[in-house]
Amino acid sequence: MSGLLTISEAAAGSGVSAKMIRYYEDVGLFRPEGRSAGGYRLFNDKDVHALRFIRRARDLGFSLDEIRELLALWRDERRSSAEVKALALRHVADLDQRIRELQEMVTTLRHLARHCHGDDRPDCPILADLAEEARQPKRTA
Amino acid sequence: MSGLLTISEAAAGSGVSAKMIRYYEDVGLFRPEGRSAGGYRLFNDKDVHALRFIRRARDLGFSLDEIRELLALWRDERRSSAEVKALALRHVADLDQRIRELQEMVTTLRHLARHCHGDDRPDCPILADLAEEARQPKRTA
DNA sequence: GCTTGACCTTCCCATAGTGGGAAGGTTTAT
DNA sequence: ATAAACCTTCCCACTATGGGAAGGTCAAGC
Questions:
Q1: Residue B134 approaches strand D within 7 Å at CB
Q2: What pTM was computed for the model?
């Protein structure tokens, strides 16, 4: 026992499930220290650190592809902070876009719901909107 | 030709791809009018109308399960608008939750990026945050 | 009526990220 | 040595969508 951890210990120490640790290895995000004679994965502190990094990046909404880039930058002593910043801001732009789309849905739905009686009667502007016959596909002419 | 449409015509008329029309039928969202002698799906106006309904509901972010419920309510003459409204507001709450999560990510990332030089130097608070050693898992004690 | 090209069918694969579970091997403590 | 706890790989599922292959159908022209 030279300070090496099993997968469940690495999971507990990183907040990443054992299932996901194996998956991240599969897709090449990182490679654990080694294996025991019997084939068990063995993790050192650096591995757990990388897993926490991945976990945190996932929490911030980065995709695994983006995390691959972030890890490469992290490991590259000669990176420029400009690269990292650009990556982060690109991601922020994506998030903003997604937020705007969701907000538009919310706005529409709240508007429709506000005009719905919400009682025993069947008439409902929400269904009426969904079923609307005369929805022209954005007339450009 | 008694006003029945082929799948590509139904697709063009509803904004739903032929691929998705088949899938929606598979998962039981709707059932097209019938089939030709040779097995081609044939759609009537009601079918296309239902497809537009589904399309619109997807645009508003409803899952296919939710759409299944919406379609059932739509078809039920004795529905209560209260049910529809509740379904819609539940969905709005989900969207709001998702929006809040995304906004939190954006806030954190913007804050980190603001403090990143974004030049040739490698030092970067974004990576520093991701790599942070001392991230305690929300101390409850 | 036959050919041909456009269209349709079903079936499988892939995506992204996560989890469930089975069958079987390893480790460790008793 | 045995048993319990743990690990391995492999397959399946989810959501919603698209790509593509192999093969059958339809309609138009001749």
A1: no
A2: 0.89
